[in-house]
Specification:
The chain is built from 15 helices and five strands. The protein has 329 residues and is mainly α. Helix 4 crosses helix 8, helix 8 packs across helix 9 and helix 11 packs parallel to helix 13. It starts with a strand and ends in a 5-residue tail after the last helix. The model has no long low-confidence stretch (mean pLDDT 93).
Length: 329
């Protein structure tokens, strides 16, 4: 099977945007590809370096979330980035030949600076995080990388790095990774902006039924629908966007028609969405609660995954050292 690599930063609890935008797809991919999934704790340091005290706890919670969501260590290799030091060494070696301008032109570099304007991000680590991402991919010679369209420029930079490395060293070691563009819904937050922990507009995967219901009631609907008797447009309603994620076709048709004809009120629509969301994540909440009592097994499984990943990464890095003339044994 072709190899796929994907990572996720531990920055707090997983929300619906994380699940429907990435994790749900991971679950499907592990039945179709040789998957390497990793917790990018070093990447978290690029924005959380000033106070890294929460990263360990976030990482543990994230691993529990992934296992509860359906990541299967029998099908995929799930590992911790910082437990495979080859990531840092390949990042260093690639940095010796990567032009500064390539990093500065990555669109997400400026986007994240704007989104996290409250943090001091004028650091080498933050500027270089796209190169660390490239090292993450190239260590495993992943042929496919599941990404959204906003990540395509970064993946193209990774391919440019491969071509430059092969040209300068005269050795062909790396596979040029290709994007695995799968349909991923745009998941808005309750206020219709991008769902984000930093915006305070997220619904979390482990939210209780009461929390889901309360957040549903706070979610924005069609602003033009001021009265119960006013017809609305579901395509500009965040609650309807959520219905698309957690409700069946019959409910979608009911919400669409009822909104356009004022046959139902926004509160009715919110209650129906909340009910379906509670049911949708019921199994996840149950499995997640079971993992809370199983820390020992959790650590054993992540250690085993990291050991498997390091075996692959070490073999790749040895070839890189030889190509760059610094392999001494």
């Amino acid at each position: 099977m072709e190899r796929v690599l994907a990572g996720i930063r531990p920055t707090g609890k997983l929300h619906w945007g994380n699940y429907f935008g990435a994790i749900q797809n991971w679950i499907k991919l592990q039945d179709q590809y040789e998957c390497f999934f990793f917790i990018a704790d070093w990447h978290s340091l690029t924005t959380e370096y000033a106070d890294s005290s929460k990263i360990r706890g976030w990482t543990i919670e994230l691993v529990k979330d992934l296992f509860a969501a359906g990541v299967d260590p029998e099908k995929a290799t799930l590992f911790l980035q910082s437990q495979v030091p080859e990531h840092a060494e390949l990042h260093l070696l690639l940095s010796m030949m990567t032009p500064l301008g390539w990093l500065e032109r990555v669109p997400t570099y400026k986007d994240m600076q704007q989104e996290l304007a409250s943090k001091e991000l004028n650091t080498y680590g933050f500027l270089g995080y796209p190169l660390l991402q490239s090292a993450d991919i190239l260590l495993y010679n992943a042929k496919k990388v599941p990404v959204g369209e906003d990540q395509l420029p970064h993946l193209e930079m990774t391919r440019e790095i491969v071509r430059r490395f092969h040209f300068l060293t005269g050795k062909s070691i790396f596979v040029e990774p290709q994007p695995l563009l799968t349909p991923t819904p745009r998941v808005p937050g309750m206020d219709r902006r991008k769902m984000s922990k930093s915006f305070g507009n997220a619904i979390y995967m482990d939210d209780s039924p009461e929390e889901i219901t309360a957040k549903a009631m706070q979610t924005l609907t069609d602003p033009a629908r001021k009265l119960r008797s006013d017809p609305g447009n579901p395509e500009v309603c965040t609650v309807y966007d959520f219905h698309k994620l957690v409700s069946d076709k019959k409910t979608l048709e009911w919400a669409d028609q009822g909104c356009r004809t004022a046959g139902i009120g926004c509160v009715d629509c919110k209650k129906a969405m909340a009910k379906n969301a509670i049911e949708f994540f019921k199994e996840f909440r149950e499995k997640r609660a079971a993992w809370d009592k199983n820390d020992k097994q959790l650590f054993e499984m992540i250690a085993e995954g990291s050991k498997r990943a390091q075996k692959v990464a070490s073999a790749t890095l040895q070839k890189v050292r030889e190509a760059m003339g610094i392999q001494w044994n």
